[in-house]
Amino acid sequence: LTVDESTGQVTSAAFSGGRNQQWIIDKADNTRFTIKTRSLTRPGNLSKAVNGSGAVIDADTEYPIRFEQYSTTGAYAVGHPVTGSSTQYLQYTGGRFQWATYGAPVNFQWHFERVVCQKGDVNLDGSLSTADVLLLQRYIGREVSFNDDQLYLGDLNNSGTVTVLDVNLLQQLIANA
Questions:
Q1: What is the pTM of this model?
Q2: Which burial class, exposed, middle or buried, applies to 36 when counting CB atoms under 10 A from its CB (0-12, 13-18, 19+)?
Q3: Domains of the chain: which residue ranges?
């Protein structure tokens, strides 16, 4: 889920590690935790990822909220584990418009947007081209800096860093297109 920092709206998106894709948990004493992994380890309020925000997306929950894939069905879901089972608030079962909601608190609101991005599109124009290769090379040569989205899209081999290996992979993608 991605938080639009200007409106507080939550949308589904592939995880990019961007700063607007952080889970914020409020404990009872309002100490904030930023969780960047797939599951949460502390119960509390799931809130907009901005300091001082009063926007609460989820009411108090006794259990941590987590995003997971179920091995039996292959479905993805947002929910929280319960002893011996799991309560799901939102589930994707495959196919177009196949998000199902159930069991969620009344104040849950889900807003979906199509995410148009592909690995290698570091200039964010929606397509792969030699312009992306040149921009990757300029980044590696420290001529330009990348934002979080560009770092994610430029890391084609998912190594955690953008290197000349990613440039080679992008050149191969473009040559084979």
A1: 0.42
A2: exposed
A3: 2-101, 130-176
